Amino acid sequence: MQDISLIQEDPSIAGIITREAERQENEIELIASENYTSLAVRTALGSILTNKYSEGYPAKRYYGGNAIIDEAEVLAIERAKELFSAEHVNVQALSGSPANAAVYMAFLEPGDKVLGLRLDHGGHLSHGHSVNFSGRLYNFVQYGINPETGVIDMEEVRKIALAEKPKMIVAGFSAYSREIDWAGFKAIADEVGAFTFADIAHIAGLIAGKQIANPVPIFDVVSTTTHKTLRGPRGAIIMCKEKFAKQVDRAVFPGMQGGPHDNVTAAKAVAFGEALKPEFQEYSRQIISNAQALSKALISKGYGVVSGGTDNHLLVLDLSVLNIGGKEAEQVLETVGISVSRSTIPNDPKPPLNPSGIRLGTPAVTTRGMKELEMEKIANFIDRALKGKDDVKVLNEIKTEVKCLCQEFPLSL
Ligand code: DSN
Predict the structure, then answer these.
(1) For domain 280-408, which CATH number applies: 2.30.42.10, 3.90.1150.10, 3.50.30.10, 3.40.640.10?
(2) Looking at the annotation, which residues are catalytic?
(3) Among 345, 292, 350, which residue's Cα sits nearest to residue 148?
(4) Counting atoms of ligand 1 from 1, which one is nearest the CA of 174?
(5) pLDDT tens digits for range 243-293
(6) Gap between the Cα atoms of 255 and 258, Å rounded
């Protein structure tokens, strides 16, 4: 529901927001990195806190008038500390890549060697891809996942680490569906004297919801976005051991950024408050159960799933059984009202723009209340749409069924 002033002031943008709200209401969101924020989060985000400049940190600002803003930032910090058992938290990072840039700036000098997972094996651009600042500023060497098992081979990681002696090891991924051996990464890093950096952007909500292991107590530094499984506003935080607090804070401000976005900081605090409630643990459990149900239903229809299943909120579907690439599958599913993102599979013979897979995630559908039964229905929609991609009648029928299912689980946006 929109404020009347926006409709009067800017009908063009108001109309776009209305149409996007209808799209979100009536379509199935399976993009693993998306979610639906609560009205409370959006209220903080759209608040007058956006009017303030607050360069610096609580009680150490470079602008006057920040006593009240300080309270919001301290609340966000305290709640994040509790949620992740963190010694120190910086809540000012604007988004995932800037947060990672600040982490590298805090721990490394340009040219230093870092070990991270390859993007086409499920890593992230900011973990050393050659077109990204990370790959251009630092000397990244990369590990992959075992193409036979679809799982990270820790012995292989150790071998590369021993041979390359990186200054930092990065763990944490964008398209990896298995539990991560945090202690194993830490042991390898200790053996070669490397810093440990976990990017938990995708799985932060599942960690906060106590469904999967938390690297924060054992790693040197951990970054996460706040808008994926964590269901907060778009943004990021950085958590680290107290002994690294100063260098991390200095890297964020004044190293990388100017004034923090105080409205976003307040919305982060609201989201962390929501994630501290017991219901969030049940939500996180259901996300994983839904991903496993979706994976099982698609495997039973003959599809391959990288690593054979999932321990978290996502799965990468291998489309090699059908004569369809990830790009076309993404487009076909969009026509029936299902959003997914194309994805490479390990050692993909196809190019990244039209890879062999699609990535599916369950955080958003779980927020709207869907459970295992609905995952079976969604698997059925996906299968029928991909197999009937050239039949407009079939696609139209599925689109209607998708809308009906969504209306059973309203978002009330
Ligand atoms: N773009 C995000 C994702 O979809 O995984 C990562 O930054």
Answers:
(1) 3.90.1150.10
(2) 53, 55, 199, 225, 228, 234
(3) 345
(4) 5
(5) 999 999 999 999 999 999 999 999 999 999 999 999 999 999 999 999 999
(6) 8
